[in-house]
Amino acid sequence: MTKKTTFASLGLNIFACAAALAAGTFNAAAQAGATGTSFVENFDQMDKSFWYVSDGWNNGGHQNCTWSKKQVSVESGVLNLGFTAGRLGERDYACGEIQTRARYGHGTYEVRMKAATGSGLNSAFFSYIGPVDKKPHDEIDFEVLGKNTNEVQLNQYISGKGHNEKLVPVAGGADKNFNDYAFIWEENRLRYFVNGELVHEVTDKSKIPSNAQKIFLSLWGSDNLKSWMGPFSYAGPTGMGIDRIAFTKLGEDCQFPESVLCRLD
């Protein structure tokens, strides 16, 4: 039995829909295409029917590495995304990324991760949808930038418009220990949490994404985004570790004791 649990059984879906309708909160049109259901992934294996592993390309001129399935591995219940030197495709470095196959909507997104060490690197947990999916660019981010791993950057894009950055301290360093990052996405409110504490709240609806998105975990580097990520300096292979990632659909109960949902009143 794997440690990933989903709540997509017919009976539960019927019950959940009926309950939502009774409460007047069911709005199917609000996020068309949000087919993903609640899950907790503890990475006792890599389920490729659930996760898509990026391999063989890069995201553009800002990225100095090529996505490689060889930089994605699972060991002792931890997902490892690597960054290492070695010519691959058009780049001199290889790096790792995974993304969900399904798209997710309003709810609670949580990860327990340890960022990579190294200036010029970006250890990211985020949701995203965009032109490649024939949708506007919507995104919600947690990014640990290698120039200062004592903080994490929060951000969101709405139809391609960003500039909503906020830097939040991470006690002890995001690359020294595993830390918990979460956001709760609602139609009219977006809340960010670090280690269970509310660190940022957005209530301006024009700054809250509306389109269902895929969930991503990635580690990548850049030679030319120095002011944002720091000067790139390769000191040897490195990686980020992910101990757990979870999504809980809006209105459903918390799924594990450490969930930020279990701490809310």
Please provide a written account of the structure:
By secondary structure, the protein is mainly β. The chain has one domain (5-263): Sandwich (Jelly Rolls). 7% of the residues lie in helices and 41% in strands. The chain has two helices and 18 strands. The chain has helices at residues 10-23, 226-229; strands at 5-6, 39-41, 51-53, 65-67, 72-75, 78-88, 91-95, 97-100, 107-114, 121-129, 138-145, 151-157, 166-169, 179-185, 190-194, 197-202, 214-221, 238-249. The radius of gyration is 18 Å and the shape is globular.
In brief:
Helix content is 7%, strand content 41%. It is mainly beta and 265 residues long.
Total beta strands: 18
Order of helices and strands: EHEEEEEEEEEEEEEEEEHE
Number of helices: 2
How widely separated are the two ends?
32 Å
**Tally of domains:** 1
Question: Could you list some keywords that capture this structure?
Answer:
single chain, 265 residues, seven-stranded antiparallel beta sheet, globular, mainly beta, eleven-stranded mixed beta sheet, 41% strand, Jelly Rolls, 2 helices
Layout of helices and strands, plus pairs?
Elements: E1 5-6, H1 10-23, E2 39-41, E3 51-53, E4 65-67, E5 72-75, E6 78-88, E7 91-95, E8 97-100, E9 107-114, E10 121-129, E11 138-145, E12 151-157, E13 166-169, E14 179-185, E15 190-194, E16 197-202, E17 214-221, H2 226-229, E18 238-249
Parallel strand pairs: 4-7
Antiparallel strand pairs: 1-2, 2-18, 3-8, 5-6, 6-7, 6-18, 8-17, 9-14, 9-18, 10-11, 10-17, 11-12, 12-13, 14-15, 15-16
